[in-house]
Specification:
The N and C termini lie far apart (about 55 Å). Helix 1 packs across helix 2 and helix 1 crosses helix 3. The chain is about 30% helix and about 25% strand. By secondary structure, it is an alpha/beta fold.
Length: about 475
């Protein structure tokens, strides 16, 4: 493929004249894709409002027009869905594309898959969420970045472009996003092409969300932060403050205008999210039952038990080999609530909106709905393990007892929480029309780089409007 032809085709896919930053990125992409060295990678970094999405969509359109092979991926189901919507091309979650189950007998262990692709460009969005290590060795080596690179470059003449925003929250336990750092990627023996989009598009400058996000992003490079950022509201229709006594009415209006699925509350902790979820269900949605039809839930621990094995084309189309922490569902039916092993369970049927409304029925453990921990605590997990194991005490050999446990519906019950309000890490990668941000109690001496990343990430989840809940006047401009 000729270098100049490629650049021309990408420019043609733009709806407007590319900015200088975008023009440089187009040139970099053309050099990257036409480089004969097979171990080449490109990093495209860009903050909100700089046209990163527009450029990525233009690259996808160009590659499709030129009949070049493409695979699109993102870290979460919602992020993959967003990527597929703006690129008009099917996107997969990274885990479900690069891993496969080890054996039919061990549903909770995944090996790195074979990459049978040839001459394929792998485009990975929301790459700031890709971690270089994990406490969970369920998947491959335990390092998603290691495995992703190994998978892509084991293919025949395959290469990868990593797209992301370094101002967003880095992966849990890391100070930076390793997948967006050129030196980190060079350490894998890759030839790195990198570029940054920093110029905010003219059409974005009228947005209060993007104006404030850009202001907050600029604070990340400051070595000494002494004051909490002051948000500008004047002159912007897409960002406002909601006092606590108006919150119920405002949420109800958002649910009516854009829908429950397009409205989210972003909080600083699971405890705050629980309080919101309980209040929203009781006061806004008028739901008295503990769990009922229409409830929006989020899976809070990976689950490998409740997805039936698919074969061939169906498996590829479903893009759902297990239920991942962060996957969302909508309850269709609740029945047979009961108490066993010191916990409460129910059988639920739910649809997965990020996976073409795939429907499944599973047993869920109700206790996680109200726990302040992200999922069952270690103590609760041990209690469930020990109590279920007692049922198999008559089996003489421990390996046989453990095998029974792994096929036990109660031990493998889905762990879920309501998803009307979530922490920022859970919201990352997704977009909603209306985003309500509750930062909780903050003072200047609580200001940290992590808070700045948190606020920037929360702001940039919104596509239409941001509501700042109980925002103090000291954190507002001209107040």
């Amino acid at each position: 493929m000729l270098h100049d032809e490629l650049k021309h085709s990408i420019r043609e896919a733009f709806a407007h004249v590319p900015t200088a930053d975008q023009e440089h990125a187009i040139e970099t992409f053309a050099m990257f894709l036409t480089d004969r060295f097979p171990q080449s990678v490109m990093v495209l970094r860009g903050s909100a409002g700089t046209g990163k999405t527009t450029l990525a969509a233009a690259i996808v359109k160009t590659m499709t027009t030129l009949k070049q092979k493409l695979t699109l991926m993102a870290p979460t189901g919602r992020a993959a869905k967003v990527f597929s919507l703006y690129s008009q091309h099917a996107a997969y979650t990274i885990h479900r594309r690069i891993y496969r189950q080890k054996t039919a007998g061990d549903l909770s262990a995944f090996n790195l898959n074979m990459n049978n692709s040839r001459d394929t460009l792998f485009m990975v969005d929301e790459s700031s969420m890709i971690s270089s290590y994990s406490m969970d060795d369920t998947f491959g080596s335990g390092s998603l970045l290691d495995d992703l690179i190994k998978f892509v470059y084991s293919g025949n003449n395959c290469r990868m472009i990593l797209i992301g925003d370094t101002a967003q929250l880095p992966p849990v336990g890391e100070d930076e996003a390793p997948a967006l750092i050129g030196d980190v990627l060079s350490g894998y023996g890759l030839k790195v092409y990198e570029c940054d989009l920093s110029e905010v598009l003219r059409q974005s400058q009228s947005s209060g969300i993007l104006w404030n996000a850009t202001m907050i992003r600029s604070l990340i490079t400051h070595d000494e932060l002494t004051q909490l950022p002051r948000m500008r509201l004047n002159g912007f229709a897409d960002i406002c403050v909601v006092p606590g006594d108006e919150l119920i009415e405002s949420l109800a209006t958002s649910y009516s205008h854009v829908g429950i699925d397009e409205t989210i509350v972003v909080t600083r902790s699971n405890k705050r999210a629980n309080i919101y979820n309980e209040g929203i269900r009781r006061t806004v949605l008028d739901r008295e039952d503990e769990l009922c039809r229409g409830d929006q839930i989020m899976i809070v621990k990976n689950n490998y038990f409740w997805i039936p094995e698919a074969e061939g084309e169906e498996k590829t189309q479903r893009n759902l080999s297990f239920l991942a922490n962060g996957d969302r569902g909508v309850i269709q039916r609740v029945r047979n609530t009961r108490e066993l092993y010191g916990f409460r369970f129910a059988d639920i049927t739910l649809v997965m909106p990020d996976y073409d409304d795939y429907e499944l029925t599973a047993t869920t453990i109700i206790d996680t709905l109200s726990t302040e921990a992200p999922s069952l605590t270690r103590e609760q997990q041990e209690q469930l393990f020990n109590n279920v194991m007692e049922d198999y005490a008559d089996i003489p050999l421990k390996p046989d007892r453990v095998k029974k446990l792994k096929s036990d519906a109660y031990y493998n019950a889905l762990q879920i929480k309501f998803s009307y309000a979530v922490t920022c890490h859970k919201a990352q990668g997704g977009q909603w029309a209306h985003v309500y941000i509750d930062q909780g109690y903050m003072t200047d001496d609580m200001l940290t780089p992590d808070y700045i990343h948190w606020l920037y990430t929360a702001l940039t989840r919104a596509t239409e409007k941001v509501f700042l809940v109980n925002w103090p006047k000291t954190q507002l401009e001209n107040s």
